[in-house]
Amino acid sequence: MTVSVFFKQEVNDFAAWKKFYDDNAHMRTEGGVIAASVYRHADDPNAVVIHSQLPDQDTAQNLANALDSEEWKAAFKAAGVKPETIEMWMCEDA
């Protein structure tokens, strides 16, 4: 059964963040993401929700654990993510 991970975060500048997100798709692929989509809040274009679908719970948990790595922390910083705003939900797809 696939697993969805939702990230809610605020960014400094959506256009700059989105370019970084698109240019670094390999990080998601290497983490096991099989599908992803991005949404922004209608009233705050710098409030972002990312939906990532992964093949199973173990892969999703490995990705969640990897977010604490120096590589991911550097990527968040370079992308203009406000780290104190990051929220994550992991859900089994039904």
Tell me which oligomeric state these chains represent: single chain
Unreliable stretches (pLDDT < 50, length at least 5) are none
The helicity comes to 25-40%
> Beta fraction of the residues?
35-45%
Question: Going across the major beta sheet, what is the strand order?
Answer: 2-3-1-4
Major sheet summary line: 4 strands, antiparallel
CATH hierarchy: architecture = 2-Layer Sandwich
Give the helix tally. 4
- Estimate the mean pLDDT confidence: 93
Question: End-to-end distance, in Å?
Answer: 8 Å
CATH class: Alpha Beta
Number of strands: 4
What is the N-to-C succession of helices and strands? EHHEEHHE
Write down the CATH topology.
Alpha-Beta Plaits
Number of domains: 1
Q: What key phrases describe this protein's structure?
A:
94 residues, Alpha-Beta Plaits
